[in-house]
Amino acid sequence: MKNFLMNRKLLVFFKTMILTLVILLSTVGFAAAQQNRAASVRQVSAAPSEASGPTDSAELEAFLDELLAKEMREYHIAGAAISVVKDGKLFFAKGYGYADIEKGIPVDPEQTIFRIGSVGKTFTWTAVMQLVEQGKLDLDADINTYLDFRIPDTYPQPVTLKHLMTHTSGFEDRWLESLASDSSGQIPAREWLISNTPGRVRPPGEAAGYSNYNAMLAGYIVSRVSGQPYDRYIQEHIFDPLGMVHSTVQSPIPADLQPLASVGYTYVNGAFQPFPYYIAQPASLPSGMHQASVTDMARFMIAHLENGRYSDENVPEARLLEESTAQQMQSTLYTPDSRLQGMAYGFADMSDNGQRTLGHQGYGPPMSSQLLLLPDQHLGVFVVYNSLGARDGGLTTQHYGFQRAFFDHYYPASAAAPVQPLADSMERTGRFVGLYRNANSHTTTPEKVMGLLGIDTLEISTHGDGTLLLSMGGPEFRFVEVEPLYFRQVDGPFAMVFREDDSGRITYLFTDLMPQYAAVKLAWYETPGFNMALALGCVLVFLSMVPVAVIRFIRNRRLGGDGRAASRGPRTAGWIIVGICFLNLLFLLGVALKFPPVQPSELHSLSSITKITLGLGVLSATLTIGALVYTVLAWKNSYWSITGRAYYTLVTTAAVAFVWFLNYWNWLGWRY
User: Fold this and answer.
1) CA 165 to each of CA 208, 343, 553: distance values in angstroms, whole numbers, following the listed order
2) What are the E-state strand segments in 152-276?
């Protein structure tokens, strides 16, 4: 997928990345484009309904009309749709705005098809459980049992389907090469999975780190065990039985459904712009390349809420799962601590305002969606937006955006019970302070560079009052330690737990705000602040070589060939250091201009120019070895004046530091 249009906020975000990498003009602050900037939606509605949950479809429509109008206006959403199911039936469904602005086609809740992103993973996990019912899959077996290639034995513990379902497999996330601009760029699933295996960065079961590769592997296993291509299996075993006639997981979308597919939009220069077309690699289909209408999603929600059973006027009786299996999928499969909310069988525990809630959020560029299941209320909600602004505003982020507004209106929270801190909590807070990065963050590919901007980074700070402040790029939460390493929110229901190693050093942070993500504490040299300062210092040193080189060139021209020109050693040393500075500056410029957009799932592949640019870093690193040698010779043989030798040493030190910088961020060579 190439040359994707971006809305104004995304362009600002991308420019921030460019400035951070090039660092030629000014210092850049954190690009906190994290999805959690929509907490203000909490005040959108009128007074909460006195009844618990929606009971009147007319009242629900009035509430949603107000809410969706506000969201679409503030976040520049071209079209949206929502479906609500209750007690085994469709309770409400409505479309808002346009599916196609140019053609004037409004959103139709029954027919308009949206990209639902990672919500589609719930189809993959449902398919897995169907095969478990049939005895064809064992959730505790090594997944290599079902694959026709082998997952690297990085750790002695095997990866199981349970690990894949709970995102505790230990794989980093993978975006590069997962999309294609046309069918000619697609490759067989097996080939893609082998050539794009992400790094195993932690032992299975140690911590949750959401990774698309988990669902990709699971979908491939479904295909292998069932003997059907993944898209055909989902069609025949989920879509067809439930009557989901406006749904597909084929990419490109089938010709008969193409006219019903919503156009995706970005908002650029005050106008909606269509999002460029792309298709998925076959291997990535199970991770969230599904497309569906909201009423089709209503059928899927009903089946899960009604213990695997579905029926309507067109479907007399359908069973998606056996009753015991459906109930099993809603039970807790993983939690890092029994006091925290965790992961069910592919669903995240998104309980809110005292209501047990399972769900998933999705992003299928540029569309975003959210699925919420309240089993105790026999209630389900699915909402989707067709514009990039939805992701940028965090409207589908769990506990914020839409979910926050819906729950505060229909299930208003009780007053938070007071928490009693540990007696020595004020003295203990310092050990938790610092920056933490999501455990799924890229570790082995060039995408790691997004961490340079603080993407997927959490900050824990304290104001000396015994509480910890958790900041996620937008809203902030105050926690107090009530048991060793266990913190409760001061004015809310959430909690967080820290984990320490054998030496007492804090290593992980877990919170039930987002149980599918753990966070790893960063060492000082891993923090964005240190790395940006290091890069800035290096670039300033490299830039200083420009006037120095000009002065030397003019001086040498004046000297001519009278014998006073520098000898061969100093001359070679000078050319090497000038070459290093030039190559490093050219490297940064090339990366800034040609690296793909950094929004998740928009990364198709590195361009040829970017790959050539990576070679410049390798060449510069090679020359840096020579510069180290000549630094020693310069002092040993008294090249230049003391000032000249000191300057040469300074530039060489910057070059060595820059090699470390490139290596740390996986930009030294071709790591993808």
Assistant:
1) 10, 8, 63
2) 179-180, 247-248, 265-268, 271-274
DSSP sequence for 551-571 = HHHHHHHHHTTSS-SPPHHHH
Helix H or strand E segment including 591: helix 568-594
Name the residue among 287, 215, 294 with its Cα closest to residue 600: 287
Whole-angstrom distance, CA of residue 333 vs CA of residue 347:
10
52-98 pLDDT, tens digit each: 899 999 999 999 999 999 999 999 999 999 999 999 999 999 999 99
Is residue 416 within 8 A of residue 491, CB to CB? The reply is yes
SS (H, E, C) 278-337: CEECHHHHHHCCCEECHHHHHHHHHHHHCCCEECCCCCCCEECCCHHHHHHHCCCCECCC
Position 507, amino acid? T
**In the 8-state DSSP scheme, what is residue 227?**
T
What 8-state DSSP symbol labels residue 454? T
What tokens appear for 480 in the block? Answer: 């107090």
User: Residues of the chain with pLDDT > 70: what percent?
Assistant: 88
In angstroms, rounded to a whole number, what is the distance separating the alpha carbons of residues 223 and 234? 10
What angle separates helix 568-594 from helix 608-636, to the nearest 10 degrees? Answer: 150
Task: Judge contact between 458 and 440, C-beta under 8 A.
Answer: no
**How far is CA 560 from each of CA 194, 547, 572, rounded to the nearest angstrom?**
60, 20, 17
User: What is the model's pTM?
Assistant: 0.88
- 309-310 and 318-319 strand pairing: antiparallel
What is the per-residue pLDDT across 165-209, written as a single tens digit (0 to 9) for each?
999 999 998 877 788 877 888 999 999 999 999 999 999 999 999
What is the rounded distance in angstroms from the CA atom of residue 80 to the CA atom of residue 207? 35
Number of other residues whose CB lies within 10 A of the CB of residue 536: 16
Nearest to 371 by CA among 361, 357, 379: 361
Peptide bond into 252 cis (omega under 30): yes
Is pLDDT above 80 for 634? Answer: yes
Helices 608-636, 642-664: inter-axial angle, 10-degree rounding: 150
Secondary structure of residue 258 in the 3-state scheme? helix
| Least confident segment among 397-401, 520-524, 610-614, 647-651 | 610-614
Q: Is the CB of residue 352 less than 8 Å from the CB of residue 401?
A: no
What span, in angstroms and rounded, lies between the C-alpha atoms of 343 and 547?
59
Q: How far is CA 647 from CA 29, 354, 542, 577, 652, in A?
A: 29, 64, 11, 11, 9
Tokens of 201: 């960065």
Higher pLDDT, 442 or 628: 628
Determine contact, residues 444/666, Cβ cutoff 8 Å. Answer: yes
Using alpha carbons, list the distances in angstroms from residue 134 to 240, 313, 568: 19, 29, 78
Q: Where are the beta strands (DSSP E) in 22-118?
A: 79-86, 89-100, 105-106, 114-115
**CA of residue 664 relative to chain centroid, distance:** 20
Neighbours of 94 (CB within 10 A): 18
Q: What is the DSSP letter of 236?
A: I
* Tens-digit pLDDT profile for residues 349-386: 999 999 999 999 999 889 999 999 999 999 999 999 99
Residue 542 in 3-state DSSP?
helix
* Cα three-residue angle 107-247-342, rounded to 5 degrees: 100
Q: 570 phi and psi, to 5 degrees?
A: -60, -35
Go through the domains of the chain in sequence order and give each one's CATH number. Answer: 34-410 (3.40.710.10), 425-522 (2.40.128), 526-664 (no CATH)
Q: 266 φ, ψ to 5°? A: -115, 165
What are the tokens at 94?
């409505």
